[in-house]
């Protein structure tokens, strides 16, 4: 061993103020090993051993390199990552840090201080062999790691695990969410240039039977950070490149929230990777999955412990300015009340109900006749949380209606099997036929009104020139009333059937929000996207042409064709021309589409606004181009005045109809019909849904998780959903 290693190690240990025994405990190495390395009796320390020492001593990057070099391990510089990937990782880290800091402020985590969260090393049956956890070489033995710790030690505990894989088990409300947030912020605070970026992923939306883990991680990154859809190395997206290059450290939250029957497949999929990760779960679901398959390969396990009476006594009195408020409760609580107050969730609810509400007295919890069991107290705290947070400053909100709306949302998430409340998925559990009817009827009514008004104006102009304005207006009104309902029915059937086709061929993922924005100048050359869209347009046009031609053979002539000609060939040619123009316009628009700015992380409202703008521009462009083209064709066929009036008028109708049709099969259009019209009409949600969701976030009922909302607590969501179902 190089002679410099021992003296250097001793100097670094002394500077840190550690004894050999303390360093041995922190690094999980033996005291004899530390002593032997410092005296030179033990030679050739392995890279893993040196890194354990560096972690325990909390060395800087330069000091780590120096210690490795002194041990004879020359540090080869890693291949430089492409600059866009480095920038994307830095930007992602910045966004996550800012977002999670705001979430902690919103949840009052530091007011007055974070509730203690502690854990102990998990049971042997849920931890892989320590040789695997510590990445021991073949034939070597490895003893267990002491992983006991508390909230501010989670980063260090994870770094002490050579495999980088840690499972955190805790009951509902035990502090897993606070712990994962602290872990991410702690990792980001000490993140080095090439360290991976810790990202929280809610496992409840993962289907391991259909989606590979890395693919799902990429999809989630794209959802919450649309800017990562930009082109990365080797032609992939930046999101995919970050995942594949190991620049993302997955923090997988809620293994227990994966759909029933898929836990075994999920654990098998996780074992098929070697990714460092942190996984949280309720104990029972994880234990059952392990019994059916195996432990998470190379993963250590810790179990969260409850709050102590001292923790609660230190915390609750400091959450209120009313002296002595909590003294009766904390002095001698009944056993079942003391048990309730061992979980951070229940302590947080108790704080909201009593410390943050002037006219509530926590002494009522001591009434054993009213609250004879642990479950009765928990139900009381859960049931009164929403009325309490909506009480101050909300005279225009009926608490019962608010609970009904929130209950519907919780029930909706329960049926979807996900904790993620996404605005574009609000109608996903509606029957397909109902979605077709709602979309078709909504768009059909609008198209019918437009067609009626335009037809009336055309007849007013046309007849009014020859027979007088009064006669022209009367005839125009009559024609408009006749044309409107017929065109509404035609448009309703067209959009409804189109909706059904999109749902049939697109499955559950069809109405996904757009990750692009439209800019004024072309951003890229025409290429594969243009050709794909042109091909789709021609396919659509061919189908339309065949349908119109067959309709003419059966004796029916639709007005969009009849204004140009009444032959079968006219229908065929119209359909092909329509499809060609549609494909060309759609293809050309691809060159004006660019990914959302990398610096803008998506929030639910920001993503909704971006999609509204994008879909509006696309719909207007389609409507203008196709409407103008149709107007020109009619004008050529019918001559100057008559052709101009009819061409412009019915071109306007077609343009608006096309714009409405395009919007209806987008995520934003689907949201508009279902979230802003159908569900409020049925009383499931208020009319101002975005404002309601943001208000629920500000009041602490919901939290933001990237582009989606989640209920602040799974227990709260379960309670609201149960109450909603009981009142249906």
TrEMBL record:
<feature type="transmembrane region" description="Helical">
    <location>
        <begin position="571"/>
        <end position="594"/>
    </location>
</feature>
<dbReference type="InterPro" id="IPR001387">
    <property type="entry name" value="Cro/C1-type_HTH"/>
</dbReference>
<dbReference type="GO" id="GO:0003677">
    <property type="term" value="F:DNA binding"/>
</dbReference>
<feature type="transmembrane region" description="Helical">
    <location>
        <begin position="615"/>
        <end position="641"/>
    </location>
</feature>
<feature type="transmembrane region" description="Helical">
    <location>
        <begin position="647"/>
        <end position="674"/>
    </location>
</feature>
<keyword id="KW-1133">Transmembrane helix</keyword>
<dbReference type="InterPro" id="IPR007111">
    <property type="entry name" value="NACHT_NTPase"/>
</dbReference>
<dbReference type="Pfam" id="PF05729">
    <property type="entry name" value="NACHT"/>
</dbReference>
<dbReference type="InterPro" id="IPR010982">
    <property type="entry name" value="Lambda_DNA-bd_dom_sf"/>
</dbReference>
<feature type="domain" description="NACHT">
    <location>
        <begin position="164"/>
        <end position="284"/>
    </location>
</feature>
<dbReference type="InterPro" id="IPR027417">
    <property type="entry name" value="P-loop_NTPase"/>
</dbReference>
<keyword id="KW-0472">Membrane</keyword>
<keyword id="KW-0812">Transmembrane</keyword>
<dbReference type="Pfam" id="PF13560">
    <property type="entry name" value="HTH_31"/>
</dbReference>
<protein>
    <recommendedName>
        <fullName>NACHT domain-containing protein</fullName>
    </recommendedName>
</protein>
<feature type="domain" description="HTH cro/C1-type">
    <location>
        <begin position="9"/>
        <end position="64"/>
    </location>
</feature>
<feature type="transmembrane region" description="Helical">
    <location>
        <begin position="433"/>
        <end position="458"/>
    </location>
</feature>
<feature type="transmembrane region" description="Helical">
    <location>
        <begin position="531"/>
        <end position="551"/>
    </location>
</feature>
């Amino acid at each position: 061993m190089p002679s410099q290693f021992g003296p250097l190690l001793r100097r670094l240990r002394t500077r840190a103020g550690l004894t050999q025994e303390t360093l041995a405990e922190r690094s999980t190495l033996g005291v004899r090993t530390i002593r032997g390395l410092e005296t030179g009796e033990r030679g050739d320390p392995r890279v893993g051993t040196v890194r354990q020492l560096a972690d325990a001593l909390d060395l800087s990057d330069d000091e780590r390199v120096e210690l490795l070099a002194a041990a004879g391990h020359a540090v080869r510089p890693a291949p430089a990552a492409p600059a866009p990937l480095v920038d994307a990782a830095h930007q992602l880290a910045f966004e996550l840090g800012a977002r999670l800091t705001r979430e902690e402020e919103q949840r009052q985590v530091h007011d007055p201080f974070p509730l203690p969260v502690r854990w102990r090393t998990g049971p042997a049956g849920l931890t892989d062999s320590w040789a695997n956890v510590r990445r021991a070489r073949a034939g070597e033995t490895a003893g267990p790691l002491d992983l006991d710790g508390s909230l501010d030690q989670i980063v260090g505990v994870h770094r002490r695990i050579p495999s980088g894989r840690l499972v955190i088990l805790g009951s509902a409300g035990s502090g897993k969410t606070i712990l994962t947030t602290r872990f991410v912020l702690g990792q980001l605070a000490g993140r080095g240039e090439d360290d991976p970026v810790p990202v929280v992923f809610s496992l409840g939306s993962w289907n391991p039977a259909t989606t590979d883990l890395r693919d799902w991680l990429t999809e989630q990154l794209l959802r919450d950070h649309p800017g990562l859809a930009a082109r990365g190395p080797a032609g992939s997206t930046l999101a995919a490149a970050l995942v594949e290059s190991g620049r993302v450290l997955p923090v997988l939250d809620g293994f227990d929230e994966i759909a029933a029957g898929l836990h075994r497949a999920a654990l098998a999929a996780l074992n098929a990777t070697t990714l460092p990760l942190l996984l949280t779960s309720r104990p029972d679901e994880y234990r059952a999955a392990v019994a059916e398959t195996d432990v998470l390969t190379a993963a250590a396990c810790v179990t969260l412990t409850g709050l102590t009476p001292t923790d609660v006594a230190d915390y609750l009195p400091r959450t209120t300015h009313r002296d002595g408020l909590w003294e009766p409760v904390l002095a001698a609580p009944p056993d079942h009340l003391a048990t309730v107050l061992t979980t951070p969730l229940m302590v947080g609810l108790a704080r909201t109900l009593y410390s943050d509400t002037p006219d509530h007295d926590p002494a009522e919890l001591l009434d054993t006749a009213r609250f004879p069991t642990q479950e009765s107290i928990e139900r009381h705290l859960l049931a009164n949380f929403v009325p309490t947070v909506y009480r101050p400053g909300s005279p225009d909100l009926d608490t019962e209606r608010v609970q009904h709306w929130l209950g519907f949302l919780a029930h909706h998430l329960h049926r979807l099997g996900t904790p993620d409340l996404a605005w574009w998925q609000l109608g996903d559990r509606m029957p397909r036929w109902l979605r077709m009817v709602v979309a078709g009827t909504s768009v059909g009514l609008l198209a019918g009104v437009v067609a009626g008004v335009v037809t009336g104006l055309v007849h007013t102009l046309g007849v009014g020139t020859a027979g007088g304005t009064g006669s022209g207006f009367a005839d125009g009104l009559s024609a408009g009333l006749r044309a409107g309902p017929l065109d509404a029915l035609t448009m309703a059937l067209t959009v409804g059937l189109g909706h059904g086709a999109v749902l049939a061929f697109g499955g559950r993922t069809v109405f996904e929000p757009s990750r692009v924005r439209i800019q004024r100048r072309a951003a890229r050359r025409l290429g594969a996207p243009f050709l794909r869209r042109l091909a789709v347009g021609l396919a659509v046009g061919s189908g339309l042409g065949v349908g119109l031609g067959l309709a003419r053979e059966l004796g029916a002539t639709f007005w969009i064709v009849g204004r140009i000609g009444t032959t079968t060939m006219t229908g065929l040619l119209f359909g092909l021309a329509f499809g060609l123009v549609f494909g060309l316009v759609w293809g050309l628009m691809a060159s004006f589409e660019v990914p959302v700015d990398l610096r803008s992380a998506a929030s639910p409202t920001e993503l909704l606004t971006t999609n509204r703008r994008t879909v509006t521009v696309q719909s207007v462009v389609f409507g203008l181009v196709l409407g103008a083209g149709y107007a020109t064709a009619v004008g050529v066929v019918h001559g100057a005045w008559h052709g101009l009036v009819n061409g412009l008028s019915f071109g306007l109708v077609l343009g608006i109809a096309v714009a409405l049709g395009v919007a209806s099969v987008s995520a934003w259009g689907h949201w508009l019909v279902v979230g802003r019209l159908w569900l409020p009409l049925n009383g499931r949600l208020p009319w101002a849904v975005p404002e309601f969701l943001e208000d629920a976030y500000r009041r602490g009922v919901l939290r933001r998780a990237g582009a989606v909302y989640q209920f602040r607590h799974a227990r709260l969501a379960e309670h609201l959903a149960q109450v909603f179902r009981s009142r249906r």
